């Protein structure tokens, strides 16, 4: 597949997920992630003078259910602050959920014995937006990529040089550059180092958090093609997080749309682009550069994403929704099936109440 970023979704047919016994590789069940935002210094001083500033709770992820099947690529899309990066960190085990469960091959990870928990930790790797921030500037690339597989007993120390050289070739880097430091590479090359480091521990799943967002458009396409190639070669499963529906459309089998910590729509990629259901998804599509004029029927997003500290009641999208009804300000819409494999959380899908 040769991705270009102007015309989503990808032209290549989706790769069939690897055969499994029907149990998803990873599942989320009712996952919440809350953060307590403490009172800052000014607030504490104001409290000394009689104010009543209190710590606030941010609901970054608010009751998410998700199944990720082996070999599948799921795109997670939403505006900055919608909770998608937090969701990715919960999936990768970087943050524990505040409530709910993460299941690995059908078993709650919180109850896994140590050896299996370690296998899960290595089995889900994360690639970040800014590789410079996640690569140790004092280490040579040979050690950045080769340290973890030696520490975890995946390879012997004497095999490290050959192992790293093979990985560097796979991600399109010259193995002769193994003695260099991260600052001696371009942004696109540094992201390839991050990808090689993730691959080095032989993961089954990779969480890509805005992994191409900091790159030039032409480099974005190259790195997306690399992800697709590695998926085929390593039988990988991806959770591909991006604010850009166009980028996600190039690589994903299925797209999940998030708004203020909740999933509001989930469907196969071609359905999201051809038959979007939720008004928020349509608004995201309206902002996407496209040659297809029919999408211009959708209205772009109005206003700002509300603060997760004080989310609106009812449907949290109602202050920005052109179709909002009185009911939308009170009742929380739940995610319901609107067609095979297609779910949406919008009251417009409910049948009119009987007279
Ligand atoms: Fe708009 Fe109401 Fe649907 Fe929310 S539930 S997206 S406010 S129509």
Describe the overall structure.
By secondary structure, this protein is α/β, with parallel strands linked by helices. It has a domain at 26-259: P-loop containing nucleotide triphosphate hydrolases (Rossmann fold). 29% of the residues lie in helices and 21% in strands. It contains 11 helices and 12 strands. It has helices at 41-48, 84-91, 114-123, 131-134, 141-151, 160-170, 187-199, 217-234, 245-251, 269-274, 279-286; strands at residues 26-37, 56-68, 73-77, 99-104, 107-108, 124-127, 205-209, 237-242, 254-259, 262-268, 336-339, 342-344. The protein has an 8-stranded mixed β-sheet with strand order 6-7-8-3-9-10-12-11, sandwiched between helices. Strands 2-1-4-5 form a 4-stranded antiparallel β-sheet, covered by helices on one side. Strand 4 (99-104) and strand 5 (107-108) form a beta hairpin. Helix 5 crosses helix 6, helix 5 packs parallel to helix 7 (187-199) and helix 6 (160-170) packs across helix 7 (187-199). The radius of gyration is 22 Å and the shape is globular. The relative contact order is 0.15. Mean pLDDT is 88; it is low at 1-19. The structure holds iron/sulfur cluster.
What are the main properties of this structure?
binds iron/sulfur cluster, eight-stranded mixed beta sheet, 11 helices, alpha/beta, Rossmann fold, disordered N terminus, four-stranded antiparallel beta sheet, 355 residues, 29% helix
């Amino acid at each position: 597949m040769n991705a270009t970023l102007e015309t989503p979704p990808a032209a290549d047919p989706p790769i069939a997920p690897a055969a499994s016994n029907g149990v998803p590789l990873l599942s989320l069940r009712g996952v919440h992630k809350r953060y307590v935002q403490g009172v800052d210094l000014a607030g504490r001083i104001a409290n000394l003078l009689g104010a009543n500033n209190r710590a606030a709770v941010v609901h970054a992820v608010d009751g998410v259910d998700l199944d990720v099947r082996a070999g599948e690529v799921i795109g997670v899309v939403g505006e900055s602050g919608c909770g998608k990066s937090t969701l990715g960190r919960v999936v990768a085990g970087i943050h524990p959920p505040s409530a709910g469960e993460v299941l690995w091959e059908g078993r709650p990870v919180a109850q896994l014995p140590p050896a299996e928990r370690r296998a899960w930790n290595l089995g889900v790797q994360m690639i970040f937006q800014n590789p410079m921030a996640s690569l140790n500037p004092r280490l040579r690339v040979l050690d950045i990529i080769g340290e973890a597989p030696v520490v975890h007993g995946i390879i012997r120390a004497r095999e490290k040089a050959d192992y790293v050289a093979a990985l560097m070739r796979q991600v399109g880097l010259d193995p002769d550059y193994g003695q260099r430091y991260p600052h001696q590479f371009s942004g696109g090359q540094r992201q390839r180092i991050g990808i090689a480091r993730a691959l080095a521990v032989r993961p089954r799943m990779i969480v890509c958090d805005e992994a191409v967002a900091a790159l030039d458009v032409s480099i974005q396409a190259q790195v997306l093609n690399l992800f697709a190639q590695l998926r085929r070669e390593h039988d990988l499963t991806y959770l591909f997080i991006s604010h850009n529906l166009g980028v996600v459309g190039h690589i994903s089998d299925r797209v999940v749309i998030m708004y203020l910590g909740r999933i509001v729509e989930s469907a196969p990629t071609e359905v999201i682009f051809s038959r979007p259901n939720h008004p928020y998804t349509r608004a995201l599509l309206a902002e996407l550069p496209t040659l297809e004029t029919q999408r211009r029927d959708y209205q772009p997003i109005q206003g700002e994403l509300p603060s997760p500290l004080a989310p609106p009641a009812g449907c949290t999208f109602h202050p920005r929704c052109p179709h909002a009804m009185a009911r939308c300000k009170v009742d929380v819409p739940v995610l319901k099936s609107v067609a095979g494999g297609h779910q949406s959380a919008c009251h417009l899908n409910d049948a009119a109440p009987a007279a």
